[in-house]
Write a structure and sequence with these properties.
Bound molecules: beta-D-galactopyranose
Organism: Zootermopsis nevadensis
CATH architecture of the largest domain: Alpha-Beta Barrel
Helix content: 25-40%
CATH superfamily of the largest domain: Aldolase class I
Distance between the termini: 27 Å
Structural class: alpha/beta
Keywords: Disulfide bond, Glycoprotein, Glycosidase, Hydrolase, Lipid metabolism, Lysosome
Main location: other
GO molecular function: alpha-galactosidase activity
CATH class of the largest domain: Alpha Beta
Subcellular location: Lysosome
């Protein structure tokens, strides 16, 4: 969990005209401060991650990566110290190719040097993108860079874009190798600031769940990309939907939003402790879409506690319809696959309503708003 610059701040390098929003030392220090002072750290957001566009266009004389001298005047070791001083962790972006996606130097040809550089800056997280490289080389290249990261002896979370580039080029990713070498990986398109983008991601993870879901588990996660809650493109309902679905998907929770201006109701969604607890459930199972018909979807994820072999579940009822009135969804617990004869204690995770203990034959009936959802915890 943490904050990542890309979706909201992109490759804005114009610190002269836009000093508050450009990719710079100042932006990351500001977000670091706000993650702590606005209570995000207290609910689990921990990593402050730089994305693309932090580099000088040329390596140093001795071949080292150099952060942009004007925008990161104190260097990244200093910035990393600052982040650590606030009790948070520090992440960085690079690319397994000749260039990053935005055209800055990539790691190809410098794997050892760059892994050492990151360790010397006390980096805790590396996102390794895949532009300007051949997807066929990734089966060797991503593990090789991971090997060099491990060789430094500094634990660094390793975020890979390996499968998504291979899928785009028509290959089937070798997920068992990806699971072995990466801590998280992107499977699909970049998220953009729109409901259409969010829907396309939800569909991808639902339609491909048989291939994707089994790869998730503690220490290795599918990454449906950043949380865009609090930006321009999602309504309040749609923002609640992203948070609920990301929790069902056991997704990394990386916010990409301006924490200086986010409205309180969006902040409350990002800080919903009950939904975060679902996302971070220790079993680490990723949920599945168990029903889809007529614009209504039901998604379910097995979670703790497990009582006499019966899992608890987080269940989201999603309305993808566009007729402007809520849709009724009525379903028994048994129809959801919940069969503990002792029943389940049922709780609404947004509304703070507890329905008490319901038996498998009880019908739950909800009115789901257009592009909204309900998320319940069924505790075994
Ligand atoms: C994309 C990547 C994005 C972002 C961008 C930076 O390929 O998927 O998440 O990192 O490159 O240029």
């Amino acid at each position: 969990m943490g904050w990542l610059s890309w979706e909201r701040f992109r490759c804005n390098t114009d610190c002269k005209n836009d000093p508050d929003n450009c990719i710079s030392d100042r932006l990351f220090r500001t977000m670091t401060d706000l993650v702590v002072s606005e209570g995000y750290a207290a609910v689990g957001y921990e990593y402050i991650n730089i994305d693309d566009c932090w580099l000088e266009k040329d390596r140093s004389y001795s071949g080292q990566l150099v952060p942009d001298r004007l925008r990161f005047p104190y260097g990244l070791h200093d910035l990393s110290n600052y982040v650590h001083g606030k009790g948070l962790k520090f992440g960085i972006y690079e690319d397994y190719g000749n260039y990053t996606c935005a055209g800055y130097p990539g790691v190809l040809g410098y794997l050892e040097t760059d892994a050492d550089t990151f360790a010397s800056w006390n980096v805790d997280y590396v996102k390794l993108d895949g532009c300007y490289s051949h997807p066929r080389d990734m089966d060797r290249g991503y593990p090789e860079f991971g090997f060099h990261l491990n060789r430094t002896g500094r634990p660094m979370v390793y975020s890979c874009s390996w499968p998504v580039y291979q899928i785009y080029s028509g290959m089937s990713p070798n997920y068992s190798s990806i699971v072995e070498h990466c801590n998280l990986w992107r499977n699909f398109d970049d998220i953009q600031d729109s409901w259409a983008s969010l829907e396309s991601i939800i569909d991808y993870y639902g339609n491909n769940q048989d291939n994707i879901v089994p790869n998730a588990g503690p220490g290795h996660w599918n990454d449906p990309d950043m949380l865009i809650i609090g930006n321009f493109g999602l309504s309040y309902e749609q923002s609640k939907t992203q948070m609920a679905l990301w929790a069902i998907l056991a997704a990394p929770l990386l916010m990409s939003v301006d924490l200086r201006t986010i409205r309180p109701e969006y902040k409350a969604i990002l800080q919903n402790r009950k939904i975060i607890a679902v996302d971070q459930d220790p079993l680490g199972y990723q949920g599945r879409r168990i029903y889809k018909n007529n614009g209504i979807e039901i998604w379910a994820r097995p979670i703790t506690p497990v009582y006499q072999n019966y899992f608890s579940y987080a269940v989201a009822f999603l309305n993808r319809r566009t007729d402007g009135t809520p849709s009724d969804v009525a379903v028994t617990l048994r129809e959801l696959g919940l069969s503990n004869p002792g029943g389940y204690s049922v709780e609404d995770l947004y509304e703070d309503v507890n329905y008490g203990v319901l038996t498998p034959l009880t019908k739950i009936k909800v009115k789901v708003n257009p592009s909204g959802e309900y998320i319940f915890k069924y505790k075994s």
